[in-house]
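User: Please predict structures.

Assistant: First:
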Amino acid sequence: MTAVLEISGLRKTYRSRKGVRKALDGFDMVVEAGQVHGFLGPNGSGKTTTLRTLLGLIKPNDGRMAILGREVPRLLPEVAGQVGAIVESPQFFGNFTAETTLSLLADAGGVNPHRVPAVLELVGLRDRSKERVKTYSLGMKQRLAVASALLKEPKLLILDEPANGLDPGGIREMRTLMRTLSESGMTVLLSSHILGEIQLICDSVTIIAAGRRVTSGSVSSVLATHASATVKVRLEPGVDLAGAAAVLRAAGAAVTLEKDHFTVGNASNPAQITKLLAEKQIYVAELTPVSADLEDVFLELTGTAPVDGANRQVDQVAATTTQGGWGQ
């Protein structure tokens, strides 16, 4: 497949009175043609900095970037007409209608005016297109932003949190639109915190943490590589869950108590669970592997999983070390 977007060794630092902060620290990413590619990372990880740098809004300190085979930002004017993008919260003139807004953008960009009703139809704003933007909800403004990015019929569409403010029906419609665009040959780079949607819609993903890529590949391969070692344990009715959990924790198991069961998060050898509990006359009624999803992988790789009794701060990433599973 042909790479539509290539980033290699991208670095960006910011200086302040507190010192130097590395927003990007040798970041790499490749997006293949015709894919919907998910770009994931916690707040402050460098996602928006990457997108703004890619679009020539921020100057990098080092690294190489290319869009459609052209080096950017040096040759960005050659490919700008083939890229549609919304980054962060879009801003529009509140007294203009959606139709007027898009018509002005089309005129400024030399786009056929017939594209305006076409994109309004695509994003579901056809019947509200003559209303002033200041009367729009957040979700409707987000639809308008996506419409503006589609005006040029771009080869590469870059969307930063396109589902922001959308209701469940709108999120599903956006998912369908992204797939339709991909099937038509458009490449979509999608940044989102709705990991369930990313897992449903994307062909491939890149996960960034602390300015560095921590994993990338097809969604299926990323999930397979980080298969869960978690098992769900249900005991016979009336048995003390907390007491059983204490037995396993004493042996090094990572146990999370739920209402009517508990999970063991590092169970490389689930047979040890039944053995240890049986020795205490506690018998297991159910022992079920828990499938990993993209949220589990994200939390593990970015070190942002919640910790009991602690309040994680923005930019605070847990130290990650390679550990074997419990019960080997």
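Second:
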Amino acid sequence: MRTDGGHGGGAGRVDAPAADAAGARGGHDLRHHGDAEVRDDGSALTDLAVNVRAGTPPPWLRERIAASLTGLAAYPDGRAARAAVAARHMLPVERVLLTAGAAEAFVLLARALKVRRPVVVHPQFTEPEAALRDAGHCVDRVLLRAEDGFRLDPAAVPEDADLVVIGNPTNPTSVLHPAASIARLARPGRVLVVDEAFMDAVPGEREALAGRTDVPGLVVLRSLTKTWGLAGLRIGYLLADPGTVEELERAQPLWPVSTPALAAAEACVSSQALAEAAHAAHRIAADRAHLVAGLREFGSDGLHVVEPSEGPFVLVRLPRAAAVRRHLRDLGFAVRRGDTFPGLDEDWLRIAVRDRATVNRLLQAVDRAITLSRD
């Protein structure tokens, strides 16, 4: 693990005006996301680049959203959805902020909080750093290393960092950090942002910090778009102390979350939905084990899977990964390139977990793509 502070390596600061097409240092395009892999010809591809759970939203959720359309003439009223999210985490409503997806929460944090030294723990979802840079902040990075299994060492985070961002389980590494290790990052005067967008895909949500009130400066982000297939609706929420919630809420525009999204939020934290999500988490874990076992068969070809994987995706390193990815597209499969994540390069790919039949077809395609990449 190392701290990457900018030019020339070592610790330091980064000159960070607005993010450009290349994103940040090292040529990483911080604004490249999995949907770009299927944007133009996605209908012809089996999508393993985007981490939205397949087969969603379920019919009962579509019906709840459709029923909300009769109320579109009125301005959105988020009180019921906010209360439902608070009850789901056994928190007072003052600790809940509904957002237009987790991405909006990152923008609010970047714009509203007065911080001097923000640090982002990478490799992880790149939008937090992009939002901070766009807001004019100088951003330091702590890069987790493959040799360490991309595990967190809290001591590697600079002591004077007053904003720390980390994902758990982390996208794209699929590493689930112990909650105790993340909590060790908390300090008086520091905001600790934990992106738990994929935590509901972890059986039992073990290592979750959502609902904790004993960790100073803790801000937990949750997304409802991944598990429930609502990426096009944009709904998520933030859990924090009331003062932080109030500060971020002032930075939001009026009525930031639409009526259909509010209906979805209320539905997705119901007891029925939580039971369905828990069942899906166990199914994802079984399907992921099948995917990992199949990928291990390519070890003699130099393919390495980051393990243990705990999210609805796996990260792999293999020779000629860029060529393999192109051949996979020709064979009908879209996977996520890894070189846009700080700390990774073009030897890395992220693969979403799918059902066994889809995985079996993918594994056949991987075999063919590796062979073609040698030609």
